[in-house]
Design brief:
The complex is a heterotrimer of chains A (303), B (532) and C (336). Chain A has 303 residues and is mostly helical. Chain A contains 13 helices and no strands. The radius of gyration of chain C is 24 Å and the shape is globular. Classes of the chains: A mainly alpha (303), B alpha+beta (532), C mainly alpha (336).
């Protein structure tokens, strides 16, 4: 998505010219300390996910009932072999959390990519074709928005059956309307502008017009919405996991880990504390990043 | 004065010392809401528990046992051919009253007739009220068994059967045969709201229903005119608390006196609590993993045996059931008569298992599916977790098992259709007879079609034994037959027998004379509470 | 003016039809047969199964079922629960006040904290306080509330024994459900401790459910205030020498409230989502928990009725917000 920006050749800018767009963007972005912190956390999570098999001290699936529910190392009875303790059937918490980062990132990106793809197409069609098609699409989106999102996601998962893939599809459906609305609004604004009219007069077909002219121009809000969407996706998928409808055990998805360990809450605080903390930090990081991106990409919104 | 109340509420709010009700109140932390107040259509233990205080049966199970004792019938005669049962009803039994209804007469034969006809006669105006699904009446085979029910006089009822059936009395001691008031039913039918009798119930039981708020609370009050004498406690409150850990927290704080289904993880703490006693009793149940004996490779007994040996059962039971289960070697629980303790369980021996698999032609193991119970049952507190542990053990002998699960209704249906390779299931006995396990779950009859024999195990020598035992009347002979059947079962290994759940009930020390029911029911008549 | 209201209201009709379609067909797609689900280990005899299907009307063609359903809905009959056999509307009516009570408390909690925090942050822009409020509110916005609830229980109920773990009130208080709102009912009752008990039970669920709205309100108030304070009339007021306090509270806040109120209105759907999770954690006897139970039991009528009723509640609130907003702000009216 950012390719559009980076394609611009990186020539040394003469002093008279305005600063290079990427540099300008970075300038705005770097001024926002929260956003940078978010980015750092995200990079950390991504690295953890990529090198999970190197970083994790144990297999996330290896059970050993003799060491079930060991506390973290700083508590009495804990050991450095299992730094964050073990879960009810003796799996290493730290390793499971590390592998869980893969799933959370996968959920975040998959859901957002999917809903952006479908959402933009629907939005572009609605905004360009107008008429009955538009009414139909937009009404449908309204109805989806009317449902409490989790309820709708639950119903969809109930239809498709619980599981990681199906919960991702459900969440993608639930956040779809935001992208449709965004894309449609952008199309309507852009198509009335001169350059589109010019392109149309010069004989550009509607498809070409959409993807070559209109779409690149509504990229900025989409990127912002996407980074915020990742956090929503991770949160919603975790909520489904918590209700037992998301990824299924033994998968180390954080929400599922929470649900699985819930009955031990009175006895072993670590089995519920760490997965939740991981969710909170990751989601917070994406929200910080989203805020920073919005400020940097859309200076109009800056106050 | 306002201030002191405030102070009291702030300082000792959680304790019964600050109880606003001065009377003797017993609080039971129930695990869920009842379906409604008509046991004839109920299917869950939760519903039966909520109806138990309100209603009586003609005959009942003794408190804390399986013995049948007089209920609304004082005594009964059974004809020599075993076909006619004559019940002599108790005189002067009073009905409850509520805002809809004030009884004008005592309990009599009409009410008993109404109980049978509501469930057995489709043309009865109440047959379809609330629901036409009289599950237990049908499941216990009543429609085919009962030939006629006649009122001899106001206090005598005669039931005629189509064939002799020894467990008949035990059957009608079950909750589904609870007696409702015919007079109330008629009044409500006239008023145009027949379903009221199942929502605002009138019974003859030791407690009257005061208030029910879904998912929150059920409130009962002792019925002073109860025929067997007023209950020792004045108020009985069901505090509906679905979460097991929360139930325990409430018992700890004294907000509840008795709780069902404790979380296995909390048992250790419960045993240490000086204010709490844990009552224990082995339940009439078994949890198992059925191999689909009609499917390759499970049709080979060597494979089944090998898999039995590859799973570390003791560790598994300890991890899943903690203190609430004992490893099972036979398909029937140890508390049941004819249990064969001489049977030796397959040892945990992965090396031998690998060898056996190689002999059977699978030196590198194979791939299959492992179905995990989607719901929690006492005989299997956590199907998913159990499946994970089994999967890990199986992997060590080279068997790759994929865990599968469906929504419960779907799950059971597909298992019964035999779509699985290996599937978890279990059973809780209805009447305490081994036939209820060995024939129902492992006989050839139920292996056909969508029967409850999910191993699809049909092995002639075994089937001959259990069928013979079914028609034999001599108890000793039956015992021998069932003991032999268990030996064959172990040789053929259609199941991995996992565990028998132990019924554990934490109760507070101030509760006096609470008795565990082998059927897992909770009844509070006869229970007292010590004042502090 | 009237035209604006009429157009806006007429838009509701297709949405309503859409919701009934969604409620009906989507739920029919859920695999699993409610009759099978109700049966225990023994399963159910095929003959009886067929009879029950007829009884519930599941044997008719699906479009006919939909027609019957719509007809009944228009008469206010949402069917009966398959599990309890009780009227869906009646069950909703007894459970909904619990959800409303919780949701209202959560909103009030969010407003009481969020408005002043947002205002102060705007006034002291770029101060440590501002950064603190913004940081905390973003964390609140990112909170997995199902985890937050567990952590609060762990801390306040288990560790310090300050608050009850679950439920709406101590079961020993016998409260007649006159209004269904326990705070009111318990005040009406004679038991003096009842009200306090109800309040104590409300604290944690309120915090859990109020966390996300609190974060949204604080952020929204801050940005709305900043915008308003840049406007000419505020500068004029400043120039006139009005006190800072007066400017902020009287002039700026009043105008900044409009977008904030809108945001609250639009949070209703989010609130219900949160209520489902909060009610599950605290065993709160409301509609959220009711719907989750219905999913697991395949209780079609309850699911349909619940989706429909909740959808309608959200729709009405959105409509109300839209109308009010249109009345306050004429520009919106003409844009539509």
């Amino acid at each position: 998505m950012t390719a559009e920006i980076m394609e611009t050749p990186a020539v040394a800018a003469p002093t008279s010219q305005p600063p290079h767009p990427l540099r300008e963007f970075w300038g705005y972005f770097a001024a926002n300390k929260g956003a940078v912190a978010g980015l750092v956390v995200i990079v950390f999570v991504v690295l953890t996910a990529v090198f999970a098999n190197v970083l994790a001290p144990h297999s996330p699936y290896l059970t050993d009932t003799t060491i079930a529910l060991q506390p973290p190392f700083w508590q009495e009875g804990g050991s450095l072999t299992y730094p964050l303790g073990t879960d009810p059937i003796g799996r290493d918490m730290l390793s499971r959390l590390i592998y869980g980062s893969r799933l959370s990132l996968l959920i975040g990106f998959f859901v957002v990519v999917l809903s952006i793809l479908i959402g933009t197409v629907l939005g572009l069609v609605a905004g360009y074709v107008r008429g009955v098609t538009e009414i139909f699409i937009m009404r449908l989106m309204d109805i989806i928005l009317t449902m409490p999102s989790l309820l709708l996601a639950i119903v969809v998962v109930a239809i498709l059956g619980p599981g990681l893939m199906n919960s991702m599809l459900a969440v993608a459906l639930v956040i779809l309307p935001h992208y449709v609305r965004l894309a449609r609004a952008a199309v309507i604004t852009e198509t009335s502008k001169d350059y589109v009219t010019a392109a149309r007069v010069s004989g550009a077909g509607p498809i070409r017009l959409m993807f070559k002219e209109v779409l690149p121009n509504c990229m900025a809000p989409l990127i912002v919405q996407a980074s915020l969407g990742i956090s929503t996706a991770i949160l919603d998928a975790a909520a489904l996991g918590f209700l037992g409808l998301g990824a299924q055990p033994p998968s180390p998805e954080w929400g599922t880990m929470l649900a699985d360990a819930r009955e031990f809450v009175l006895r072993a605080w670590w089995v519920v504390t760490f997965p939740g903390l991981a969710i909170l930090l990751t989601v917070l990081a994406f929200n910080l990043l989203g805020d920073g991106l919005r400020d940097a990409l859309d200076p109009k919104l800056k106050r | 004065m306002k201030k002191s109340a405030l102070l009291a509420a702030v300082c000792v709010p959680a304790f019964l010392a600050a109880a606003p009700l001065a009377a003797k109140t017993l609080v039971y932390c129930a695990e869920g809401s009842p379906e409604n107040f008509y046991p004839g259509i109920n299917t869950t233990g939760t519903s039966f528990d909520a109806n138990e205080p309100i209603y009586n049966r003609i005959v009942e199970f003794e408190r804390g046992g399986t013995q049948v004792v007089p209920g609304l019938a004082e005594k009964w005669d059974i004809s020599a051919d075993g076909l006619t049962y004559t019940f002599y009803l108790r005189k002067g039994v009073k009905w409850h009253s509520n805002k809809n209804f004030k009884p004008t007469r005592d309990f009599n034969a009409d009410d008993v007739m109404f109980m049978f006809e509501r469930q057995g006669k489709p043309d009865n105006p109440y047959f379809k009220v609330t629901s036409p699904n009289h599950s237990y009446y049908d499941d216990m085979g009543m429609p085919g068994l009962i030939k006629s029910v006649e009122k001899v006089n106001d206090l005598t009822v005669k039931v005629t059967l189509n064939k002799p059936e020894a467990p008949f009395l035990a059957d009608i001691a079950m909750m589904f045969a609870s007696v409702q008031s015919k007079e109330y039913a008629d009044a409500m039918l006239k008023a145009g709201s027949p379903e009221k009798i199942d929502q605002e119930p009138i019974g003859t039981g030791p407690f009257t229903l005061l208030q029910y708020q879904k998912d929150a609370v059920i409130r009962f009050k002792a019925f002073p005119e109860y025929w067997a004498g007023k209950a020792k406690i004045d108020d009985l409150v069901f505090s509906i608390t679905p979460d097991a850990s929360v139930r325990w927290a409430k018992v700890q704080k004294g907000e509840c006196h008795v709780m069902p289904y404790p979380n296995p993880a909390d048992i250790e703490a419960m045993r240490k609590d000086p204010n709490v006693t844990i009552l224990e009793q082995p339940g009439l149940n078994v949890g198992y993993l059925a191999y689909n004996t009609t499917k390759k490779p499970f049709d080979d007994v060597r494979v089944r045996k090998a898999l039995n040996m590859s799973i570390n059962k003791d560790a598994l039971v300890k991890a899943i059931y903690l203190d609430t289960g004992v490893p099972a070697k036979n398909p029937i629980p140890p508390s049941m008569w004819s249990y064969n303790d001489a049977v030796k369980d397959d040892p945990y021996d992965p090396e031998a298992a690998k060898k056996l698999l190689a002999e059977a032609g699978f030196p590198n193991g194979f791939e299959t599916d492992l179905w995990a119970m989607p719901v929690q049952r006492p005989y299997n507190p956590n199907g998913k977790r159990m499946a994970e542990l089994m999967q890990a053990d199986l992997a060590k002998v080279g068997v790759k098992a994929e865990i599968k699960s469906f929504e419960w209704g779907e799950y059971r249906k597909r298992l019964q259709a035999g779509e699985h390779g290996m599937g978890q299931l279990g059973w809780t006995g209805d009447n305490g007879d081994p036939d209820n396990f060995l024939h129902t779950l492992l006989g050839c009859d139920s292996a056909k079609g969508a029967g409850s024999n999910v191993a699809k195990f049909c092995y002639k020598p075994f089937d001959d034994l259990v069928v013979k035992a079914k028609v034999t009347t001599d108890q000793k002979q039956r015992t021998d037959l069932y003991k032999q059947a268990q030996v064959i079962f172990k040789e053929q290994a259609p199941w991995l027998t996992v565990a028998h759940a132990v019924q554990l009930k934490p109760i507070r020390k101030e509760v006096v004379d609470f008795k565990l029911s082998p059927f897992g029911r909770h009844s509070f008549y006869g229970v007292d509470i010590k004042g502090k | 003016m009237l035209r604006f209201i009429l157009t806006r209201v007429s838009l509701v009709i297709p949405t309503f039809i859409g919701i009934t379609l969604l409620a009906f067909f989507l739920i029919r797609l859920v695999p699993g047969d409610p009759i099978e689900t109700m049966a225990g280990e023994r399963g159910i005899d095929p003959v009886r199964h067929e009879l029950l299907r007829k009884e519930f009307g599941f044997d008719k063609p699906i479009l006919v079922q939909y027609g019957i359903y719509i007809g009944r809905v228009l008469h206010g009959d949402l069917g009966r629960s398959i599990v309890t056999q009780a009227s869906v509307l009646e069950e909703f009516k007894t459970l909904f006040p619990a959800t409303i009570e919780l949701a209202l408390c959560a909103i009030i909690f969010a407003l009481l904290l969020g408005l002043p925090a947002g205002m102060l942050a705007a006034v002291k822009r770029n101060s440590i306080f501002d950064h603190g409020v913004m940081g905390i509110s973003l964390a609140g916005y990112s909170m997995p509330i199902f985890w937050w609830g567990l952590i609060l229980i762990l801390l306040f109920s288990v560790q310090f024994d300050l608050t009850p773990v679950s439920g709406r009130i101590d079961v020993l208080y016998y409260i007649e459900p006159t209004t269904g709102f326990l705070l009111i009912d318990s005040l009406l009752s004679e038991d003096e401790g009842a009200f306090l008990s109800a309040v104590r039970h409300l604290i944690l669920p309120t915090i859990v459910l109020g966390t996300v709205p609190l974060a949204v309100i604080a952020r929204m108030t801050r940005s709305a205030m900043l915008e308003v304070m840049g406007e000419d009339y505020i500068r004029t007021a400043k120039a006139k020498g009005l006190s800072r306090l007066r400017i902020v509270t009287v002039h700026a806040l009043r105008n900044a409230l409009i977008p904030v109120v809108t945001v609250i209105g639009l949070q209703v759907g989010v609130l219900f989502t949160g209520a489902i999770l909060t009610e599950t954690i605290f065993s709160w006897p409301g509609v959220g928990k009711w719907m989750i139970d219905a999913i697991f039991r395949r209780d079609y009528p309850v699911l349909q009725g619940g989706v429909l009723l909740l959808g309608m509640v959200v729709m009405s609130v959105n409509l109300l917000v839209d109308l009010t907003y249109g009345l306050i702000n004429p520009r919106i009216r003409h844009n539509r």
